[in-house]
Each structure stands twice: as structure tokens, then as C-alpha cells.
């Protein structure tokens, strides 16, 4: 009968009934028994939060009934903090349930306040491309408390044009949060040409010169009269001196760089014409030519080259286009190619028939 009863704290008396299993021969008996119920600990106040403001005190945060702040005039700081409170069970009307307790820690989270910005600074004048953002002439700017206006990325180099960059107000009082705003600035194109690197040779041939490819550079072989983006010059004359220059290309941020120092180089001499190919033999997988010292050979009309005059691992019954040339040296470029010689490898059956004839 008392199973769903919530007893108060203290000594309580409840009637206990014993019911025997054998109810035919025995009767039930009962007696009042004391039950001691200890007082519980009061539940701590939780989920306390607020936002910082001037003259904020702990007393501005209301505690549940029975709770009082130990120092109600204490000024809480922003962030996760803890303060102390008393609990009076009698004043809460729970003296029959909870103990009274003193100096209980209560957690409190105080959000940072947002400062009021009366007016944001204005960027006066222009930056020149290459200037750091922190070089901007900022004027004005007033806030409701002490602090500093700073660029979020002060060492950034903004591109030329009308831009917006983030300016941050950082309060001196750590109880206030930083706030930001995009501020308009003007960056003009840099018209002061900077020095350019001197060209560097990467490849020298009889009809072609390749210079090292510098990023964002343009090149010239006639002292800048005609410029090109490519670092490669074709259709040149063998064994001829050329004077090359280069410079940084103009872009939206800056004018073109100064023309570099002249780099002079002679194209290589063209090697003498090669001796023609002399066919020796072929099978279904191999073709052999007479070896000529100083020459190299190709089976695909000059796409790929090899030093050997013997071509192996070929496909049977297939056309190949052979040519040869004199190899390059430190002084000479490769020669012109010989006239292409087209040869079919034998089919497997033809090769087998040739071997069979030679046996008799």
C-alpha cells in the first residue's frame, strides 16, 4: 500500500503487513515500523549564461528559490567562470527534503559583449601595387570603448583596383569581442618597371634555340622589337649569332619589367649530310642495315632514334619507315635526314618457307 509513497526526510512510521502463503491455517499480521530517510543534496543550478555589460553583477543572474550568491556584488568576467552560492532549504520550503549548504560552486558562462562602433575609419589616398596593406592611411574611427583598429591581414599585398579588405576593432577590455567590417581601398597599377632576369640557355640546335622558361616572362631575339611568350625560337640559321633579351610581362598590377641584359649565343653548326641506308637482311621480326659510325637510326621516319642499325622485336608482315642521320656533338647539331626507306617485315609463313628452301 506504500509502494508509490515518497517519504519525507527523517524517521517515518509505516504499517508493515505479513501475509502467509498458507492463508487457510494462518492469518495476516501487521505492525508499524520506523523508516529513516536521509535528506538529499540540493540540485545545483545549471545552464546559467548571459552577456557581459557595464556594471554587470552576479545579482543580475537570478538563482532558483533558496539559493543566494555569496558575493552578489561581484563583477563576473566573460568566458567559463565559477562562483559560489548558499542554499537555504528552509527558505526554499524544502527543509524536509534537502540539506542546507554553504559555498556551493555554481558554473556560469558569460558571453563577450559586442562593442558599439560609432564610425569606422576611412582609407585616404591610394596604395601602389606592391605596398603592404598596413601602409594604408586610415583616418577617423570611434568606438564606445578603448581599442585598436587593425587590418586582419596587414602584410597582404592587394591587387590593383578598387578592393575591400577586412578591418578589425580589437577592444582593450577582454570582456568585449572583436568586431570587423570590410573597408574600401584603392590600389593603383605600379608603373615603375623592375629589373628582369637575363636569359639562360636551355637547348642549342642548328635551327632552334630554347631558353629557360621564366614564369610570366616574354622573349625577343631582336632586342625587343618583336616579343613572344614562347621561350623557344625556331627557323634559325645554323652557325649564326643571335642576341636574346627577355622581361617580365605587363599585367593588371604592374607595367612590363625592364629589358634584360643581352644574352648572345651561336646556333650549332649543321652536321654534314649522312650516308644513305644500306639494307642487309630482314626476317619477320628483324631488319638489319649496314652500321655507319657516327650515325643513328629510326624506324618511324624520325620520331624515335637508336644507335644500333639492327631493328629487332618488330611485328611480322608490317611496313616500317627507316631513315638515318649524323648524331649531334657539342659543336654540331644532327644532320638532315636521308630519304625514307620503306620496308615490310616478312610474314611468319614466308620466313619459314625461306628457311626451308635454304636446307636443300
Written description of the protein model:
With 360 residues, the protein is mainly beta. The protein has helices at 89-92, 348-358; strands spanning 10-18, 29-37, 49-51, 67-69, 79-87, 101-111, 117-119, 122-124, 127-128, 137-139, 142-143, 147-151, 161-171, 179-188, 201-204, 209-211, 217-220, 232-233, 241-248, 263-266, 269-270, 279-282, 287-289, 295-298, 310-311, 319-326, 332-333, 341-344. The strands form ten sheets. Strands 3-6-5-4 form a four-stranded mixed beta sheet, with no helix packed on it. A hairpin with a 4-residue loop joins strand 15 (201-204) and strand 16 (209-211). The protein is elongated and about 130 Å long. The model has no long low-confidence stretch (mean pLDDT 91).
Q: Keywords, please?
A:
360 residues; 2 helices; mainly beta; four-stranded mixed beta sheet; single chain
List the helices and strands and how they pair.
Elements: E1 10-18, E2 29-37, E3 49-51, E4 67-69, E5 79-87, H1 89-92, E6 101-111, E7 117-119, E8 122-124, E9 127-128, E10 137-139, E11 142-143, E12 147-151, E13 161-171, E14 179-188, E15 201-204, E16 209-211, E17 217-220, E18 232-233, E19 241-248, E20 263-266, E21 269-270, E22 279-282, E23 287-289, E24 295-298, E25 310-311, E26 319-326, E27 332-333, E28 341-344, H2 348-358
Amino acid at each position: 500500500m506504500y509502494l508509490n509513497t515518497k517519504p519525507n526526510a527523517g524517521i517515518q512510521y509505516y504499517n508493515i503487513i505479513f501475509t502467509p502463503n498458507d492463508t487457510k491455517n494462518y492469518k495476516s499480521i501487521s505492525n508499524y515500523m520506523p523508516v529513516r530517510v536521509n535528506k538529499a543534496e540540493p540540485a545545483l543550478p545549471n545552464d546559467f549564461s548571459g552577456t557581459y555589460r557595464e556594471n554587470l553583477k552576479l545579482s543580475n543572474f537570478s538563482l532558483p528559490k533558496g539559493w543566494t550568491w555569496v558575493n552578489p556584488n561581484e563583477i563576473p568576467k566573460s568566458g567559463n567562470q565559477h562562483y559560489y552560492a548558499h542554499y537555504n532549504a528552509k527558505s526554499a520550503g524544502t527543509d524536509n527534503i534537502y540539506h542546507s549548504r554553504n559555498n556551493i560552486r555554481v558554473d556560469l558562462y558569460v558571453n563577450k559583449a559586442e562593442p558599439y562602433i560609432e564610425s569606422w575609419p576611412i582609407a585616404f589616398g591610394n596604395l601602389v601595387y606592391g605596398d603592404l596593406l598596413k601602409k594604408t592611411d586610415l583616418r577617423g574611427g570611434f568606438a564606445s570603448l578603448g581599442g585598436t583598429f587593425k587590418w586582419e591581414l596587414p602584410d597582404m599585398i592587394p591587387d590593383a583596383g578598387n578592393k575591400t579588405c577586412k578591418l578589425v576593432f580589437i577592444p582593450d577590455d577582454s570582456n568585449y569581442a572583436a568586431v570587423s567590417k570590410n573597408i574600401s581601398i584603392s590600389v593603383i597599377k605600379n608603373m615603375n618597371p623592375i629589373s628582369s632576369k637575363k636569359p639562360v640557355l636551355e637547348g642549342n640546335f642548328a635551327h632552334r634555340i630554347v631558353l629557360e622558361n621564366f614564369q610570366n616572362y616574354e622573349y625577343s631575339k631582336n632586342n625587343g622589337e618583336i616579343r613572344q611568350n614562347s621561350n623557344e625560337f625556331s627557323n634559325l640559321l645554323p652557325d649564326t649569332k643571335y642576341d636574346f633579351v627577355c622581361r617580365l610581362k605587363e599585367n593588371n598590377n604592374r607595367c612590363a619589367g625592364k629589358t634584360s641584359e643581352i644574352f648572345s649565343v651561336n646556333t650549332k653548326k649543321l652536321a654534314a649530310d649522312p650516308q644513305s641506308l644500306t639494307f642487309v637482311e630482314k626476317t619477320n621480326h628483324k631488319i638489319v642495315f649496314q652500321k655507319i659510325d657516327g650515325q643513328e637510326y629510326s624506324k618511324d621516319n624520325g620520331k624515335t632514334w637508336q644507335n644500333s642499325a639492327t631493328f629487332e622485336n618488330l611485328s611480322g608482315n608490317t611496313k616500317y619507315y627507316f631513315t638515318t642521320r649524323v648524331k649531334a656533338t657539342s659543336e654540331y647539331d644532327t644532320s638532315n635526314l636521308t630519304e625514307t626507306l620503306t620496308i615490310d617485315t616478312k610474314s611468319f609463313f614466308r620466313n619459314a618457307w625461306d628457311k626451308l628452301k635454304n636446307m636443300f
